[in-house]
Amino acid sequence: MSSTIGEKIKISVFGESHGKAIGVVVDGLPTGMKINMDKVLHEMKRRAPGNDKTATPRKEADFPEILSGVVDNVLTGAPLCAIIHNNNTKSKDYSDIKRCPRPGHSDYPAYVKYNGFNDIAGGGHFSGRITAPIVFAGAVCKQLLEEKGIKVTAHINSIGNVYDEEFNPCNIDDETIDRLLNSSFPLIDESKEESMRKVVADASADKDSVGGTIECGVVGVKAGIGEPMFDGIEGRIAKAVFGIPAMKGIEFGKGFDLAEMRGSESNDNFRYDENGNVYTKTNNCGGILGGITNGMPIVFKVAVKPTPSIAQKQETINLETKENDILEIKGRHDPCIVLRAVPVIEAITAITILDLLS
Amino acid sequence: MSSTIGEKIKISVFGESHGKAIGVVVDGLPTGMKINMDKVLHEMKRRAPGNDKTATPRKEADFPEILSGVVDNVLTGAPLCAIIHNNNTKSKDYSDIKRCPRPGHSDYPAYVKYNGFNDIAGGGHFSGRITAPIVFAGAVCKQLLEEKGIKVTAHINSIGNVYDEEFNPCNIDDETIDRLLNSSFPLIDESKEESMRKVVADASADKDSVGGTIECGVVGVKAGIGEPMFDGIEGRIAKAVFGIPAMKGIEFGKGFDLAEMRGSESNDNFRYDENGNVYTKTNNCGGILGGITNGMPIVFKVAVKPTPSIAQKQETINLETKENDILEIKGRHDPCIVLRAVPVIEAITAITILDLLS
Amino acid sequence: MSSTIGEKIKISVFGESHGKAIGVVVDGLPTGMKINMDKVLHEMKRRAPGNDKTATPRKEADFPEILSGVVDNVLTGAPLCAIIHNNNTKSKDYSDIKRCPRPGHSDYPAYVKYNGFNDIAGGGHFSGRITAPIVFAGAVCKQLLEEKGIKVTAHINSIGNVYDEEFNPCNIDDETIDRLLNSSFPLIDESKEESMRKVVADASADKDSVGGTIECGVVGVKAGIGEPMFDGIEGRIAKAVFGIPAMKGIEFGKGFDLAEMRGSESNDNFRYDENGNVYTKTNNCGGILGGITNGMPIVFKVAVKPTPSIAQKQETINLETKENDILEIKGRHDPCIVLRAVPVIEAITAITILDLLS
Amino acid sequence: MSSTIGEKIKISVFGESHGKAIGVVVDGLPTGMKINMDKVLHEMKRRAPGNDKTATPRKEADFPEILSGVVDNVLTGAPLCAIIHNNNTKSKDYSDIKRCPRPGHSDYPAYVKYNGFNDIAGGGHFSGRITAPIVFAGAVCKQLLEEKGIKVTAHINSIGNVYDEEFNPCNIDDETIDRLLNSSFPLIDESKEESMRKVVADASADKDSVGGTIECGVVGVKAGIGEPMFDGIEGRIAKAVFGIPAMKGIEFGKGFDLAEMRGSESNDNFRYDENGNVYTKTNNCGGILGGITNGMPIVFKVAVKPTPSIAQKQETINLETKENDILEIKGRHDPCIVLRAVPVIEAITAITILDLLS
């Protein structure tokens, strides 16, 4: 129940970090499009570890094997299933974290919920690795959206206290989108890369980690899409985004900044352009009013918490002795997952938008 | 499809601001509890207009008539339906806003989506008035939660740039909860009331409005409740909250502040208390890890945008002439809806939590 | 959860036989159509009691009051809610059936499920009366379907051992549909009315009741509608139909007769007609293959059990004394509900088909 | 959307007859049970082809590979995914049936729905082969149900016009259940095997096929399980069963026979047994009243149409020439699928019942 989302396009994610394979079933896709596997692999590489110093140097061969739903990579309309084999999963000893739940991780609530039977190795089903099949599904949905003239793009909005510029919420142009897609460190203002990398390197040097924010934009969705109340676009996107590990906040348009504004400032005034098309001069609402698109770009930001796995010793409990204890997490972990989360946020957004339009 | 939410406890909201009646059907409630109507009416009064200067002086007799689901106010297990008759709905002339969509409102996207057939009077189904039946449903759910030892409470976290204190996220005590419930202006630090009121009064004097934030806490939910990934508690609450008009952001625990933290600072360390119960010294995660409760209070904040209806002249389009135009909204409107939204956030949260536990 | 069905068109039914009102919320309807209330009332009269000798002589003024979702009876796109007030509900004494569950009724399983708190008066939420709002919702959906050239019609297929002719499954013509709609006793072969009435009268004279079957046809649905596997049309219709009290079986096309056929006999061969349209010479599959329409009429039959309320003394248990007991049900009850169920089956089918097409 | 079913236990089926693999994701299972793989393989062998003369002599090595959701075959609570590799799928030439849709198959409606892009080889996602992963999922659910004292069993109720005896609906004993589970031709009255086999052999000799019926029983479900109206047990089971290829009818308890009965005959009278437990002397309702269990065995029958693939020449259309044509289906096909469908009906029922109880 938990790992499934969507109405018309329904995805069901499965797998654990150190199991045989992880994967996804995507049900409800339209027929006839040939999947561009190069583009899919490009998206997966953006998420994969080992590609950047801010991320873990672990290598994962995230090559998706499509089991169903295609003939010669053309979508047939039947459920699309792809799996990614887990290599290199000879589990080291996880008995310490089985005993001592890692602070900031789901270990303890999962221990209670699953009566201790959950797979702890590598985080099991809660691992960030589970986002790889989501990126696969998102890459396919992105291609289907492009056929409708819709593009989904995201960038690092901040790492620690270093902030990128924001999108121009009224106009996210193709050049920007293409540049971000092909960047190894997607920023609006590329001059911020160095200071962001320093924040990560400093944290890493301190056996610590750091959080950040991601801004995501969707262009090309016409006005009038969505539903009022509980099936509004904000709610749909939020539910999907909070399905991604480490996300702790979401805001649409100016979001929390709206709370300090006055109405005369926050209201986006409608105007006709020279071609008789409706637009708004500002886009403080992030393209959504009453849960429904107004035709402007959909824009939102998400908060990514610092990687909870840090190399410092941490206080925690010992579930065996029932006493307080100290835990030292072994292994290599991303000091910052914001970079790798960028394509994941794009992916889950693309899936959600395609579902909305189906 | 849009106005329904929930899995085991399902609510379906109906009605328009100026129709015959608004109401709600709540399906899936347990049996046997006698609804305390005094408590229900108290909750509804907290939301009702005309009770405070920050709100509109319109009077609404928000008295719910229960049509089904009870015998002598005891829940029978059949769907509970309550309606609130709309009095005083002799519509004034809405032809101007039918022609000229109000900035910041759903008028324009709704016009596109519904081909102009949507009921525009008073905002129709998009009106904030539609939250009255949600408060009814929430008041019943709150009583059912209290039987399980669970309490939901909220306060004004900010209006404009004036901020209340935050909850102690590790311990929201009964005294605070009771005080907030019975306060006409619920604040942790009551000394902030005057400056907050001034912010609202200033905006009102300028024919303007102002936004704010609300903080909500839930105490008494055990560890291990919720699901991983797409059915996590954050996603469930977020989807429900974005069903409430004017909400533009949500963050759990420290939320966006986590993005500037390091892992060593944001991780909440687990400890045993003297009775062998697990707790965390801090609660930066807002009581949720991996989508599942850890037994600490669930804490989140929402961003409320300024009331879009302001008395100033605003630029907008004219859907008849297809030219740019100027709109002046008539009638009285809340210069700030934060106060009235407090019980609504509590209500939708209570409904969501009860659904999760059912 | 129980009283809600549908994906895009979602209905939520509420009310008890002797409560204040029964009603329905229909969410997801398109905009712009003006509801023809004469047609709605005609459908409701077909279901209402007191119109025929086979039915109970109780009078019910089943007049639906629309609370929301319309302006001047034109659909706005907001949830449509209609209620029917229960008059004449001064409950007689139900203590005997509270004590002694009626055989064939839900009294006993409901007693267990709801811990005795369910409303027993008149059957409560399990009463056949709850189908009145379904007929209202169905009447609206029928009008929306007619705009798409789709008609839903049904007739009494049998009462006891007297059988009507079946539809010509390859061609259900408008004349037949109109005649059935306006008939007080809808039959293909009207000569069967007398013997059917005699079966009912005989049962009634014996303080007994009798069952029957209903055949339903849907014309005008194009080929290619529906989904494979668990969202196939048979499954969708079946789930909806079993939501109607007293339905115990459903078969599509030749249904159970197919089980005795050979493939060469049961297969419907495809052919082109003179205009190049695809048809089948026979329609043993009831218009559905692999869960998807093939363009022929959708045809199915349902089994209606005899009214469980009979005036004879019956053996049952006494939940107070925990001993076996004898129950004599008072009041007047339909000796046969097949006639009144005909418009209900049409209604729930219309709702389901409109949902499929939305 | 189509290949997913369930509320708390959600299954998502994927794969095509001649694709790389078929499989299933089962989300929402409880933790801690060790899957007995011998029992799973026994169930899968019951469904597999090549085991009986009534079935196709094709050999399939239906060995499920579990990708996720277990550690050492113990359920972890994460989604359980199992796949079955398709060997031997070097597709012969399917161009004839691509051109000429097979009567009685989904080829034509699928062609329309999927614009010709659906995978036709071996029936693609519509193939009966897709039931193999359902049997896997059902085998796991059966083991979980047994821990609750619940058993699901089925037998061949008829093939052609030869009928087995029915279950004693008031008492399906363990001996019968065990015998049926281990029988290569499950019948209550084993003396019917010979004449049933003759019906199949005769059809086969005539290049034809034959249908039948299956009766299924569930014992051990307590009274009070299920929901009224649209979430009743009949509707839930029916929706699941119609997800299985070739099913065209379902009836609960006496089903269509009830339509010819009188109420005095059909009503099941409640009684206390010597231990104070409630039972009914008859079980005409199939254990379900008002959508809710009454504590007696749940009993239902399904109608299985004759295998549509027959070796005789058949009339059909040619989608290329747009003219009428003649098709001769090559390859070997089951002359009767009733035997192999028995464990599939058990499986889908077990999944549905476990979902209801979760």
Secondary structure elements and pairings:
Four copies of one chain form a homotetramer.
Chain A (H helix, E strand, L loop, with lengths): L3 E2 L4 E5 L6 E7 L9 H11 L17 E4 L1 E2 L2 E2 L4 E6 L9 H5 L7 H7 L17 H16 L4 E9 L2 E2 L10 H8 L11 H13 L6 E8 L13 H9 L5 E6 L10 H4 L3 E3 L5 E3 L7 E2 L2 E2 L4 E7 L8 E6 L4 E6 L9 H20 L1
Antiparallel strand pairs in A: 1-2, 2-3, 3-7, 4-7, 5-6, 8-9, 8-10, 10-16, 11-16, 12-13, 14-15, 17-18
Helix pairs in contact in A: 1-4, 1-9, 4-9, 7-9
What characteristics describe this protein?
alpha+beta, five-stranded antiparallel sheet, Chorismate synthase, AroC fold, 23% strand, 358 residues, homotetramer
Which strand-content bin applies to the residues of chain A? 15-25%
Helix content of chain A: 25-40%
Q: Radius of gyration of chain A, Cα only, in angstroms?
A: 21 Å
**CATH homologous superfamily caption of chain A:** Chorismate synthase AroC
In the predicted model, the low-confidence regions of chain A spanning at least 5 consecutive residues are none
Order of secondary-structure elements of chain A: EEEHEEEEHHHEEHHEHEHEEEEEEEH
Give the domain tally of chain A. Answer: 1
> How far is the N terminus from the C terminus of chain A?
22 Å
InterPro entries (chains A, B, C, D): Chorismate_synth, Chorismate_synth_AroC_sf, Chorismate_synthase_CS
EC number (chains A, B, C, D): 4.2.3.5
Keywords (chains A, B, C, D): Amino-acid biosynthesis, Aromatic amino acid biosynthesis, FAD, Flavoprotein, FMN, Lyase, NADP
Subunit structure (chains A, B, C, D): Homotetramer.
